[in-house]
């Protein structure tokens, strides 16, 4: 079997892409409804919490003498046996299945609400999963290269929105600071925490495949979370300063309102068309990796010979759930704001903490030689 190798740049790019698309619009709109113009503070607090968890994940997954760790379920195998590895894989299947709902909300509502209102919902679901299945079929290295392209698109998107919005930037719209208090800002950051939760669980599956991932993965994972946080904070500052928090809070996809408000010179008045083109790679990467994660964990659960055999069943399951969520706008918002954060955080924070605790408690057992060669 060929061993998968991701460069550190690919690993960091995958983290940024996994956070970005939903966080700049759907998440910021949710946060603005809770704490108004302090949405940038909630984003900053969420980024700091993400940095902590990615380091905990790295410490839990760092190299075990005599053991070959390929993902979080394989760490479960090493700690408590195969049953625990299977349980971990089952939890991750449920996590990414639930996480596909917010991803589809982001993907569909950007396109359907603003550009293609007459197109049947099934077309968006099938087309997104078809692209995701192609990337999933070709594997992590292809997804890593796509993520590098996504970083370029994210940079261009941020650069253009800054240029297009700077003339209407009014810092008075961001005052007073902490109007609702720090505890409320911390509570609102839970919604951004749910975004980096997807990135953290993505890292749980790909960290050992990154260059020196089990040795220095925490540093590069933290760099990815920090870079994503900075890219997203640009939007969380511009949206209240340009639109006002009150206007941002009225939109499910608040970034599209900001994009429509941006003007770059004389010939780029319809900036939202450019935004959709540039934002497409990050959101398609999210779909692609979610499908990969579900198929990879399902392969372990059902003892399949190849991840590729699980792609089609996983795509059907994800498509059915995504359609059910997005079909009803009120159901989608209720799931996004009231259910998904309380699924994402216990898994993304709880699993790494549990693995680290078990590793400390079972240190002697995990350091015994095993029938697996050590990662080189």
TrEMBL record:
The keyword Metal-binding does not apply. It holds the Pfam family Spore_permease. GO terms for biological process: spore germination. Keywords: Germination, Membrane, Transmembrane, Transmembrane helix, Transport. GO terms for cellular component: membrane. The chain crosses the membrane at residues 9-27, 39-62, 83-109, 121-140, 147-166, 186-208, 220-238, 276-297, 309-326, 338-362. InterPro entries: Spore_GerAB (IPR004761). It is a multi-pass membrane protein. The keyword Transmembrane applies. It is found in: Membrane. Belongs to the amino acid-polyamine-organocation (APC) superfamily. Spore germination protein (SGP) (TC 2.A.3.9) family. This is GerAB/ArcD/ProY family transporter.
């Amino acid at each position: 079997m060929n061993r998968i190798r991701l460069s550190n740049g690919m690993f960091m790019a995958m983290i940024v892409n996994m956070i970005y698309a939903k966080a700049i619009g759907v998440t910021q709109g949710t946060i603005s409804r809770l704490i108004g113009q302090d949405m940038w503070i909630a984003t900053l607090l969420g980024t700091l919490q993400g940095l902590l968890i990615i380091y905990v994940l790295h410490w839990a997954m760092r190299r075990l003498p005599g053991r070959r760790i390929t993902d979080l379920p394989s760490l479960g195998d090493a700690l408590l046996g195969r049953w625990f590895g299977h349980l971990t894989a089952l939890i991750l299947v449920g996590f990414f299945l639930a996480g596909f709902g917010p991803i589809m909300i982001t993907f569909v509502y950007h396109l359907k609400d603003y550009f293609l209102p007459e197109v049947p919902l099934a077309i968006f679901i099938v087309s997104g999963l078809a692209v995701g299945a192609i990337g999933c079929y070709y594997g992590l290295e292809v997804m890593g290269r796509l993520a590098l392209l996504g970083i370029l698109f994210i940079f261009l998107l941020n650069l253009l929105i800054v240029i297009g919005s700077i003339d209407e930037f009014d810092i008075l719209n961001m005052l007073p600071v902490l109007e609702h208090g720090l505890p409320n800002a911390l509570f609102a950051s839970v919604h951004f925490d749910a975004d980096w939760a997807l990135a953290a669980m993505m890292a749980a599956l790909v960290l050992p495949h990154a260059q020196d991932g089990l040795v220095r993965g925490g540093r590069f994972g933290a760099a990815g979370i920090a870079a994503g946080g900075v890219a997203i904070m640009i939007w969380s500052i511009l949206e209240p300063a340009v639109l006002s928090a009150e206007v941002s809070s009225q939109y499910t996809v608040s970034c599209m309102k900001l994009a429509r408000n941006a003007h770059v010179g004389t010939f780029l008045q319809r900036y939202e068309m450019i935004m959709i083109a540039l934002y497409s790679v990050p959101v398609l990467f999210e779909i692609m990796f979610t499908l990969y994660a579900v198929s990879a964990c399902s392969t372990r659960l059902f003892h399949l010979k190849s991840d590729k055999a699980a792609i089609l069943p996983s795509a059907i399951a994800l498509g059915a759930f995504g359609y059910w969520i997005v079909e009803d706008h009120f159901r989608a918002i209720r799931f996004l704001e009231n259910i998904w954060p309380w699924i994402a955080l216990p898994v993304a924070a709880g699993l790494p903490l549990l693995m680290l605790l078990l590793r400390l408690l079972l240190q002697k057992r995990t350091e015994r030689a095993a029938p697996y060669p050590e990662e080189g």
